[in-house]
Amino acid sequence: MTEIDRCPRIETERLVLRKWEERDLEGLAELNADPQVMEFYPSVLSRAESEKMLARYMDAQQQYGFCFSVITQKGSGRFLGYCGLKVPGYQQHLSFAPCVEIGWRLLHCEWGKGIATEAAQMWLRFGLETLQLNEIVSFTPVQNSRSEKLMQRLGMVCVEEFEHPMLEDGHRLKRQVLYKMTRQRYLGQGYD
Ligand SMILES: CC(C)(COP(=O)(O)OP(=O)(O)OC[C@H]1O[C@@H](n2cnc3c(N)ncnc32)[C@H](O)[C@@H]1OP(=O)(O)O)[C@@H](O)C(=O)NCCC(=O)NCCS
């Protein structure tokens, strides 16, 4: 039996979604160095840290078949950010693990155009319909209203607020919202 590609190349109206490659380092380093993009992460990342992140993502891509996915502009191939499915690297610490999460990070100049929604809709459908996952979760600090609004646009449901186990007590980002989309709910919504 042929094994299913868990991170296929997908084309949408405006985007190409694909696996990570070495050439994505420039775009990723730019993304991770921007304080506006990284406002709801512990800190911006140096180029060396982005290099390590890319290596980790490419390893996880090998191990799980996916680790988020690159978003490029259709036609130009320009790096816009990432979005997709991922198994959190600190699974053992999460009360709702085992889980597959959906996540996103876009260059600031690409916000407000519906790009994250366009990409995330594809990965939700792929995860729940093709990979037959029972559910996909997403979480973000309570202050990150743009990310939470995206979860709501996707039809995900807020399950709880929780304390992120990887952040120390009192950290400004420790309180997070957890959203979920189950396969049952997704199929019941009548997406075509
Ligand atoms: C979270 C993040 C991806 C959301 O980006 P976004 O641009 O708000 O989301 P979308 O790409 O789905 O765009 C939706 C917006 O585009 C508008 N829009 C314009 N054209 C559109 C179109 N053709 N289709 C859909 N929406 C469109 C929508 O009205 C909406 O605007 P609003 O913010 O005024 O409501 C972005 O803020 C980001 O990268 N943040 C930094 C990283 C981060 O915090 N990630 C999450 C960590 S948990």
UniProtKB/TrEMBL annotation:
Every N-acetyltransferase domain range: 15-184
InterPro entries, alphabetized: Acyl_CoA_acyltransferase, GNAT_dom, N-acetyltransferase
Listed PANTHER family: GNAT FAMILY, PUTATIVE (AFU_ORTHOLOGUE AFUA_3G00765)-RELATED-RELATED (PTHR43792), N-ACETYLTRANSFERASE DOMAIN-CONTAINING PROTEIN (PTHR43792:SF1)
Protein name as annotated: Protein N-acetyltransferase, RimJ/RimL family
Organism: Pseudovibrio ascidiaceicola
